[in-house]
Write a structure and sequence with these properties.
The protein has 333 residues and is α+β, with helices and mostly antiparallel strands. The chain has helices spanning 104-108, 175-183, 186-195, 219-232, 244-272, 295-304, 317-326, and strands at 3-8, 18-22, 28-32, 42-47, 58-70, 73-78, 85-93, 96-102, 127-132, 146-151, 158-162, 165-173, 199-204, 238-240. The longest helix has 29 residues, at 244-272. The termini are far apart.
């Protein structure tokens, strides 16, 4: 069995005090800052094999079960029960070639090194976002041209209101909140309410891969539940944004796009709907509409007007009658 060897760097002027030798391609040698990537990924500087000293001051020597290059990474498995798996990754950072030595723990802690843009979304000089009064630790949108107003929302945590009507909303979820609301059924009702809006979404402050690492519920149960909700409510996307900062940025961009869509929709309606004061205007026949909307839409409307409706199951006939009275068909108008 070949060995992984770590020795002290004999160069006193180097900021990397250790040498790492991998049993691959005749011996790959790197300068590095520690003997194992325990709390963070370690920067490695590749050096020629001849820099390995003839009489090394060995700090650690351990047998290697597997050392295989796979693309831009070297997968390493050493012969011990703990701290036995790691990976040497060849990548680019700040335009330069770099090498990092990482373990499963430090890789799990990795986060995308990105800086969110400061450019205005949809070219808006200012956007008013309504924050639900029940939202704890709400987004501040401090880096964007946003004015926040706190008040209760019928659904979602961040909304866009036009003419006193909620036209778009975003429900924010941490991973733990997502899993708990999915397993206890609350997320299904939240999705149904969001589906009744013109534009809505659920944003998750974590990676989708984190779903398969939860320890308090079977990951397959969570994955199946999310897939079922997306099939049932295809107009309400569930978006995973890796970090809270990226989720906040995505929420801002989504609501800004929804604002622009609402403005364009108003202009389009004004162009399509004829001016009744001009008798010469020709009115086209209205497009046929379905007799009844979705139950979720009627349920959300009934709650908005103060009617007592159950959270699940069929709606009472009087609820449907009230909906039809408030939304008469074109032939009845």
């Amino acid at each position: 069995m070949v060995d992984l060897v770590i020795a002290r760097n004999p160069d006193p002027g180097s900021s990397l005090p250790f040498l790492l030798r991998l049993p691959l391609e005749g011996g790959l040698v790197f300068r590095t800052s520690d003997t194992w990537p325990r709390t963070k990924a370690l920067f490695c500087y590749p050096v020629p094999a001849g820099e390995w000293p003839e009489d090394p001051d060995v700090v650690e020597r351990v047998g290697v079960r597997s050392c295989v290059r796979r693309g831009a990474a070297i997968d390493l498995v050493v012969d011990r029960s703990r701290e036995n798996r790691s990976q040497v990754v060849f990548t680019k950072a700040r335009g330069r070639d770099m090498v990092f030595w990482q373990s499963p723990r430090t890789r799990k802690q990795a986060r995308p090194q990105v800086r969110t843009p400061t450019a205005r979304a949809a070219g808006l000089a200012d956007l008013t976002i309504v924050v639900d009064s029940h939202e704890r630790y709400a987004y501040k949108f401090s880096g964007q041209q946003v004015t926040t107003v706190t008040r209760p929302l019928t659904c979602g945590d961040y909304g866009l209101v036009s003419d006193d009507r909620l036209v778009a909303s975003v429900e924010r979820k941490s991973l733990s909140d997502l899993v708990s609301s999915l397993t206890n059924g609350k997320l299904r009702f939240a999705m149904a309410e969001l589906a009744a809006l013109s534009r809505a979404a659920v944003v998750v402050e974590d990676r989708y891969s984190a779903v398969f690492k939860v320890g308090w519920v079977r990951p397959a149960l969570v994955a199946d539940g999310l897939a079922e909700l997306q099939v049932r409510y295809p107009n309400v996307p569930i978006v995973f944004c890796e970090t809270r900062a990226l989720a906040e940025e995505w929420t801002y961009r989504f609501l800004a796009a929804a604002h622009q869509w609402a403005e364009d929709d108003i202009v389009a309606r004004e162009r399509i709907v004829p001016d009744t004061h001009k008798p010469e205007t020709t009115v086209a026949d209205p497009a046929p509409t379905s007799a009844d909307p979705a139950t979720a839409q009627v349920r959300a409307w009934a709650r908005a007007v103060g009617m007592d409706v159950p959270e699940r199951g069929k709606l009472r006939p009087e609820v449907w009658a009230a909906w039809r009275d408030a939304h008469p068909a074109p032939d009845d108008a």
